[in-house]
Amino acid sequence: MDAIAKNHSLSFSLLSEHNTNKGISILRVVNLTKRFDDLTILENFNLTVSPNGFTVLIGPSGCGKSTLFDLLTGVVPKDNGAITWNQHRVDHVGRNAAYMQQKDLLLPWFSLLENAMLPARIGKADRVKSEIKARGLFERLGLAGFENYRPDKVSGGMRQRCALVRTLMFEYDLVLLDEPLSALDAITRYSLQSLLLLLQSDFGKSILMITHDIEEALLLADELIVLTSAPMRIRRRFTLASPKPRRMNDPFLIDLKEHVLELLQEDL
Amino acid sequence: MKYPAVFSMAAILLFLFLWEGACRYYQVQDFILPVPSRILTVAITRSALLAPHAGVTALEVLVGILISLAVAVPLAILMFAHPSVEKALSPFLIASQAVPVFAIAPLLVVWLGYGMASKVLMAAVIIFFPITVNLLQGFKSCDREYRVLFKLMGADFWQSLRLLLWPWALPHFFAGLKVGVAVATIGAVIGEWVGAQKGLGFLMIQFNARLQTDLVFAAILWLSLMGIILWFIVGWLENKIVRWKFENKIPEKDRN
Ligand SMILES: Nc1ncnc2c1ncn2[C@@H]1O[C@H](COP(=O)(O)OP(=O)(O)O)[C@@H](O)[C@H]1O
Ligand SMILES: [Mg+2]
User: Is the bond leading into A231 cis (omega within 30 degrees of zero)?
Assistant: First the structure.
């Protein structure tokens, strides 16, 4: 097992901590610290998301991933540390990042289209233009014809697609995804994973995603970060250079999956 | 699924039947307890007398409800927006409920006279509490994640209120309104008992003094009908407006 791990370390171009500071970044987090009473969630946590990159965080449940997103969006104040957005120091990126989570958070009194257009409506964007954009996205994400349905009339997968359209209606470059597909069944999840790839390839977004599904991480990530629990730290960082869309029958991914699984199990 | 309704209808019919039978069997005099069939007959044949007064009472109740809404809705919004206002006002709200409102009915008549105003205020005061409290509770019941979503979309307070909190609170609001309209009629009638020149409550006092017990019961029947009709109107409005019935539709999933 050790030998395999060493092998992987070479072939996966394992990055060391100081590489964080190299290159341009859209989002950089330095020495982020957060405690809830005497529970330290984050201590001197560092992270970089490169422009148009797809960074995936995977780690034990309860290790503080969602809390990291709360700090990034400013929903919860950070205790310490710096957040840099496009080389500028900011308190949070709540107004620069679109956020999507496991719950679709669609409002039951609005149709799917009205739900998707909420960011534009609240941002007082041009109604006609944003409706054209939203309808285009409905077409693109396989929701055409369901614009006027209420959320409770469609499947969980369609609701999540609608939440994805809403996420895309934010005119932001960074997209934070907190286990966006984990409430869906395997087949629906698979089809939505390819839509998540569109975020990067067709819409030019930079993506920071949390998942607990190793295969999902391997299929989507440019950079895969394995986290430890309490306090949350980066255990390993892998760069995956193979082209997307990927398939899990790739021997490289199969080996990597084993390796990541081991890393996660060591933490239990 | 219709069985409960069938059972309650049967129970009501049985009750009326026993009432009618017992009165006839024991030859109870009409001024003590009239038989249901007579009450129904009187309620219909004397409708020319009852209707204008019922109209007055209904108007008092409706205006009372509107005034109550006009104060309760902004107040609930204010208390939600500023918890300090809620803290400051909650003793008054609770007091407005703890003081039995008929206790202030004589005062209202002294202050506002024998006309409709005192009865309107009476009805308004009675329904004010359930509406305010339910609406506030409705605003507060909105899930944190939705509020965070709106914050991230950059929504200001009024946008959140209009697009999220108000629709969210509507079912609570209607629950409060249903309770409210059922008791608002009681408020108006008590106001009329204390002192009035019109209204079903005023009529009841007159009939009672003349031992026209069948007419007293007929007035009560009209009052009950009014309460039921109001209740159904609110239910109809609720069905029209709260079409999504979201209480069961948003699964409460744990944060992951
Ligand atoms: N507002 C809060 N107050 C206190 N503890 C919290 C709060 N939010 C999260 N936590 C705790 O922080 C830890 C990490 O939670 P979370 O970030 O949701 O984990 P993950 O998303 O990695 O599963 C958990 O132990 C959780 O109980
Ligand atoms: Mg989480």
Answer: yes
Whether the per-residue pLDDT at A83 is higher than 80: the answer is yes
Q: At what angle do helices B47-81 and B200-209 cross, to 10 degrees?
A: 130
Q: What is the pLDDT of residue B2?
A: 58
Q: Out of A73, A107, A108, whose CB is closest to B152?
A: A73
Q: Tokens 């840099």, residue? A: A84
In this model, does residue A107 exceed pLDDT 90? yes
Across the range B31-54, mean pLDDT stands at 93
Residue listed under structure tokens 């930079």: A206
Q: Of A263, A230, A179, A226, whose CA–CA distance to A42 is shortest? A: A230
Using CA atoms, how far residue B122 sits from B67, B76, B184, B186, B223, in Å, is 11, 20, 8, 9, 16
Return the residue whose CA atom lies nearest to atom 26 of ligand 1. Answer: A62
Summarize pLDDT for B70-80 with one digit per residue, the tens. 999 999 999 99
B246 to A95: CB separation less than 8 angstroms, yes or no: no
ipTM of the complex: 0.85
Q: Is residue A198 part of a domain?
A: no
Q: Is residue B134 a contact partner of residue B97, using CB atoms and an 8 Å limit? A: no
Question: Any idea how long chain B is?
Answer: 256
Q: Which runs of consecutive H residues, i.e. helices, occur in chain A?
A: 2-11, 65-73, 112-116, 118-122, 127-140, 156-169, 186-201, 214-220, 251-266
Bridge partners, residue A35, by sequence = A40
The CB density around residue B158, as the number of other CB atoms within 10 Å, is 10
Whole-prediction pTM? 0.83
Pocket of ligand 1 (CB under 6 A): A 36, 41, 61-67; B 255-256
A18 and A47, same domain (yes or no): yes
| Domain membership of residue A113 as a residue range | 102-171
Bond from prior residue into A180 cis (ω within 30 degrees of 0): no
Distance B255 CA to ligand 1 centre (A): 9
Domain identity same for A18 and A78: yes
pLDDT band at residue B250 under the 50/70/90 scheme: very low
Q: Give the ligand whose atoms come closest to the C-alpha of residue A63.
A: 1
Residue A12 clears pLDDT 60, i.e. is over it: no
- Indicate the residue type of A160: Q
Pick from B149, B255, B256: which is nearest to A105 by CB? B149
What's the pLDDT band for A171 if we cut at 50, 70, 90? confident
Residue A196 belongs to a domain: no
Bigger pLDDT: B250 vs A196: A196
Residues A71 and A23 in one domain: yes
For the residues A58-65, what does the mean pLDDT come to?
A: 91
- Burial classification of residue A81, based on how many CB atoms lie within 10 Å of its CB (0-12 exposed, 13-18 middle, 19 or more buried): middle
CATH number for A86: 3.40.50.300
